[in-house]
Write a structure and sequence with these properties.
single chain; 250 residues; alpha/beta; 4 strands
Length: 250
């Protein structure tokens, strides 16, 4: 799509499997060898509401893909990003779905699937995205790193391919005949707009760590206390380090 809209934009393909820490490390090493400066990173890739599965490293797949994979990839890239001496933006794409669950500190893996709830697992992973931005702002703000999380809106992509029609109807996204309710959905351009604001808008620089909705830092979209707690953010950082087997200290 980018090549179609702006043919002159140089692009480069990168293989990144967020369910494999081994492959994440390989991808991060590849990017770290690029000649180009990396000053904006948008952690957008995710999965949503699937049957229980574990990553290659034994982590519940939604938490492992949507948070742990991005946590490891981002931290492995930070030495290259910081070395340029420029101001940086790191964007973590969350969701209103964070309201469904905080971090399940005693059981992030849902007893390895025995007590699995795919919606709570999705909520946990989206809360983690928000807490990750809070930690990045706290730990690296003085070094020029700005990090934001966001809710992009409801967009007709393949993200929700694992969600049943009945659940989509309960959410009010489909009518009783299974047709999309247009007023509930954003276009691709509308869905990407908040990403662009989070990644580039200079006017939000003084709100480091904030959660955006509809291109705004100040908005009426309610978000849960468990997703904006500095204490929870620090606990998640420690847990994430444990799960990737590496400390990241700044």
């Amino acid at each position: 799509m980018l090549k179609t809209l702006v043919p002159s934009t140089p692009t480069r393909l990168l293989q990144l499997d967020l369910q494999s820490q081994k492959q994440i490390r390989k991808a991060a090493a590849e990017v770290s060898a690029y000649d180009e400066v990396v000053d904006v990173l948008i952690n957008n890739a995710a999965i949503m509401v699937h049957d229980y599965a574990a990553t290659e490293d034994g982590i519940e797949s939604q938490f492992g893909t949507n948070h742990i994979g991005h946590f490891l990839f981002t931290n492995l890239l930070l030495p290259k990003m910081l070395s340029a001496g420029k101001k940086l933006r790191i964007v973590n794409v969350s969701s209103r779905g964070h309201r469904l669950s905080g971090i399940r500190w005693d059981d992030v893996n849902f007893q390895n699937g025995v007590a699995y709830n795919e919606w709570l697992a999705y909520g946990q992973s989206k809360t983690a995205n928000m807490l990750f931005s809070i930690s990045l702002a706290e730990k690296l703000g003085a070094q020029g790193v700005q990090s934001f999380s966001l809710h992009p809106g409801t967009i007709n992509t393949n993200l929700a391919s694992g969600v049943s029609k009945q659940d989509l109807q309960k959410l009010g996204w489909l009518d009783e005949n299974g047709n999309i309710i247009a007023s509930k959905w954003k276009t691709f351009s509308q869905g990407a707009a908040t990403h662009v604001v989070a990644a580039f808008d200079p006017d939000i620089a003084d709100r480091n760590g904030a959660y955006l909705c509809d291109c705004q830092v100040d908005h009426d979209d309610f978000y849960e206390a468990h997703a904006k707690s500095d204490t929870e953010a620090r606990k998640l950082w420690s847990l994430s380090e444990e799960l990737v087997g590496q400390k990241f200290e700044y």
